[in-house]
Amino acid sequence: VQLVESGGGLVQAGGSLRLSCAARAFTTGFTFDDWAIGWFRQTPGKEREWVSCIVGSDDSTYYADSVKGRFTISSDNAKNTVYLQMNSLSPEDTGVYYCAIARFWVRAPPLERNYDYWGQGTQVTVSS
Asked: Whose CA is closest to 67, among 48, 41, 46, 37?
C-alpha cells in the first residue's frame, strides 16, 4: 500500500488546513474496511506524536487530547482517502504530518508499532 499526503502549508494561528491521505493498493480488493488509518506528527527534536485515527470497519474515531475538539478525521472509502480537518491551529501544531495504515491491532486505537505503511509526510507550519 502506498500512502500520499497532501494539504500541508503555512497558515496563521487560528486558521485551518485540511490534510489528505490517499491510499493506493497494488492488489485488488483493497478496502479501508480492513484497516485503521492514523495521523501522526513530528517536530525536530521531538518524538513522533500520534494525532488521530479512524477505524475503517466502523468509522470509529480517536483523537489525542491535544487536538480533541479542533481536529476531525474522516474517510471517503470510495476514494480510498482519509482527511484530517484541522481548525483553530496554533504554533504548537507545527510539524510534519504523516498518515499511516494498520492492518492488525489488539485494541483501538492501534499503537504506533501496529502501523504497516507510512506516507512521506506533509509540512504544516503555523505562524503566531
From this structure: 41
